[in-house]
Every structure is written in structure tokens, then in C-alpha cells.
Amino acid sequence: MTTTTAAHPAAPGPAGGSGDTGTVVSFQNVTKSYGEVRAVDGLSLALHPGETVALLGPNGAGKSSTLDLLLGLRPADSGTVSLFGTTPREAIASGRVGAMLQSGGLMEEVSVRELVTLGCALHPRPYPVDEVLSRAGIEEIAGRLVNKLSGGQEQRVRFALATAGHNDLIVLDEPTTGMDVTSRQAFWATMREQAAQGRTVLFATHYLEEADAIADRVLVLNKGRLLADGTAAEIKAKAGARKVAFDLDGPVDEQALRALPGLTAFDLTGRSVRLQSRDADATVHAVYALGLRPRNLEVAGLGLEQAFIALTEAEEATR
Ligand SMILES: Nc1ncnc2c1ncn2[C@@H]1O[C@H](COP(=O)(O)OP(=O)(O)OP(=O)(O)O)[C@@H](O)[C@H]1O
């Protein structure tokens, strides 16, 4: 994982929070291939000041490639990427962007404090070193050598480097990987503070519960394409299906149950039936029409995880 901070003295723009009302990130029909693999496929999106946005997708969906393009680490094959109305390179040079990425290592033979001090020195609009250490919760390990840290502690040091100065956009690629639950909660509390000050936060994650709890907007990627863009609730609704669960008394006719209308998933364990249906009303009516008397009947919306699986499976089925 690398940490990107600006290394140029120019410091235009407001100090802390963007204050912009315009577009922070813009992708217009962006495509990127590696040989035969199309990692990003005609992606268009716009992020606005103060949004906290989760980038979700299965392995290989194109999340890291999208973040690399956004940060100007790789050129797009076609289409336009801009940050704050300029090129990614210019935006980063002006110190408006902080990032935690998945690749690369930290400088090793230095203490945490020395590394954070360097990160602050490189930023055009730095915070005081002690403030950066404290925000990342690493004051107690400030004297330790970086190569003696645990994985979760390293992540916090990377976070400190990504927030060493006043950034308007913070980009995080799976930032809480390796953190324990307490560290993860503390991390997101800090990110919420950053967002509340008007910063835009974009994070890629495999933890759907994090996207559900933290993001006010979720982008679902699959095979480099945007499958869904909305609040977690909108994504769940877009997946269309609902959960239907009930228990049965008496003999269970699995074949008849599998033939219920609208089913997108089916599980029968003993006498417990767990379904997903794109038309829960029709499914439940058909259960009664079979002469069954379901007990403990529950009908509920999908969780984000189930919605995510349903969306990506539907996309696979159309290819
Ligand atoms: N440097 C590269 N050379 C060749 N193929 C690449 C390269 N980087 C990524 N890919 C391919 O591009 C596709 C998208 O990869 P990417 O790393 O962007 O996905 P991701 O959503 O971040 O995946 P993960 O969740 O596993 O990190 C994958 O098929 C991957 O194998």
C-alpha cells in the first residue's frame, strides 16, 4: 500500500473542507484495459463536496483500477478523468487529495513520528504533527520503528499520512483491512468528522456492512461497469428481490415449493423455508394457494450484501 500526499509548495484553495459547490471527481466514459482484460469499461460518474461514497464490487471488479485512474497513477485509454475541474496530477500537486492505496510499503528504518513528520513536511497545507498522530490514534506508538508494527497499526500510520494536511478529497482503498473491530470503529468515527467538515471521502471496501453504515452513496462496480449508484437503501431496492421466510408443519413438498412464482433463491432446511422473491406478494399468495399454513412468516427487504450478490449475478447472467 502506498500513501499519496502532495509534494509541491503551491497551496491554492481553501484550508480545510473544500468549500466548492462544484464537482470533486468526474469520470466521463472512461475505459482502461490491460491486454485483453477491460478493467474499467465506459465509466461515467460525478462526486460532490461532502459526500462519503463507497465503491463496492467483487474481486477484479475494477475498484483499484478506478482509484488508480482517479489519482492519475495510470492513464485512461479513452475518456476523461478530472478532479476539481483539473487533471488528477494538478489536483494532487495542489495538496487537495490524500490517499491510502493497496500497493507498496512504508519507509522502514524510521520511527512513526519521523515518518509522519516527513509526511507533514511534504504537504503544502500540513496539520501539526501531534494533531495528525492523535487523529490516527498512534501517539502511543510514535516512538516505534515502522517495521515493528502490526498490520492494523501500519494501516493507521498510512491513514495518518493520508490526512497529514488539509485535503478536500480523501481516497481510501480497503482502508480497514487488518484492523480489529475497535480500530475500525475509531477509524470510521474520524472519517465521519472529516466528511462533516465538507471533505469528500471515497473508499473501496469488501465490508458491505461498512458501506451500509458509513456511506451516504454506494457505487456498485462489476467488470469495470457501474451496476448501481445510490444510497444503500436504493441499491437494496434496485436489486428488486425480497426475503420470504416461514416454517411448515406436516409433509413438505419441495418440488411444489421450488415452483413458487418469482423465486430468485431457495433454501429448505428441515421444515424451515428461506426464499428470495422478486414478487413477494405473489409468492406468499401461492404458498396459501397450495393449502399450506406457514408459521412465523416474515417478508423483508434484502440486506446490502444480498442485494449486491443479486445485482452482480443478474449482470453475469446478461453477458
Ligand atoms: N497491472 C495489471 N495488469 C494486468 N491486469 C490487471 C492489472 N491490474 C488489474 N488487472 C486486472 O484488471 C481487472 C480489475 O482489477 P482491479 O485490481 O482494478 O479490481 P478490484 O476490484 O480492485 O479487485 P480486488 O477487490 O480483488 O482488489 C482484474 O481482472 C485484474 O486482474
TrEMBL record:
The keyword Transcription regulation does not apply. It holds the Pfam family ABC_tran. Its main location: membrane. SMART domains: AAA (SM00382). The keyword ATP-binding applies. Residues 1-10 have a biased composition (Low complexity). It is found in: Cell membrane. Residues 25-248 form the ABC transporter domain. Coiled coil: none annotated. Residues 1-22 are annotated as: Disordered. Keywords: Antibiotic resistance, ATP-binding, Nucleotide-binding, Transport. It is a peripheral membrane protein. One of its GO terms (molecular function) is ATP binding. This is ABC transporter ATP-binding protein.
